[in-house]
Design a protein that fits this description.
Largest sheet: none
Strand content: under 5%
Helix content: over 70%
Structural class: mainly alpha
Protein name: DUF1772 domain-containing protein
Keywords: Membrane, Transmembrane, Transmembrane helix
Order of helices and strands: HHHH
Radius of gyration: 17 Å
Number of strands: 0
């Protein structure tokens, strides 16, 4: 590993991404589930406004670093483990979590618990992806 290559940066961003995912999974979504029906619309809107910049702040560098890593370390096992985990998290976010949030913003109160449970399951997939990405990044850093 060199300080000029992507490995230390990928390790840093992958660790931040896993911390973010764990916070969402263990703190943010449980708090959303506890929002009373009469406060739901505002709670979900505040969450959406606040989380979007953080997602961009983490996912853009993550994707760029994964691309850089593939370009300079294509034969390293850690590269492909990090790419697999990162791709799982990013694709799951785009294909499942974001659309679920869209449905949650307009779902009737009776449908919300099922959607929130489904979102929790999807978030665990994203968290596993972030963990796998971090393991790959750690392998590259040694």
């Amino acid at each position: 590993m060199t300080s000029t290559g992507p490995a230390p940066w990928l390790l840093l961003v992958a660790a931040a991404h896993l911390g973010f995912q764990l916070t969402v999974d263990l703190v943010v979504y449980p708090a959303l589930r506890e929002a009373p029906d009469d406060a739901w619309d505002e709670a979900h809107a505040r969450h959406s406004r606040r989380i979007a910049p953080l997602v961009a702040l983490l996912y853009v560098p993550l994707v760029l670093l994964l691309g850089w890593t593939v370009a300079v370390e294509p034969r390293a096992e850690g590269t492909w483990l990090a790419v697999a985990g990162g791709a799982l998290a990013v694709v799951t976010t785009a294909a499942l979590a974001a659309p679920m949030h869209g449905r949650l913003s307009s779902a009737p109160a009776r449908e919300r618990p099922d959607l929130l449970r489904a979102l929790g399951r999807v978030d665990r997939i994203r968290t596993v992806g972030a963990a796998v990405c971090l393991v790959g990044a750690a392998l590259l850093a040694v």
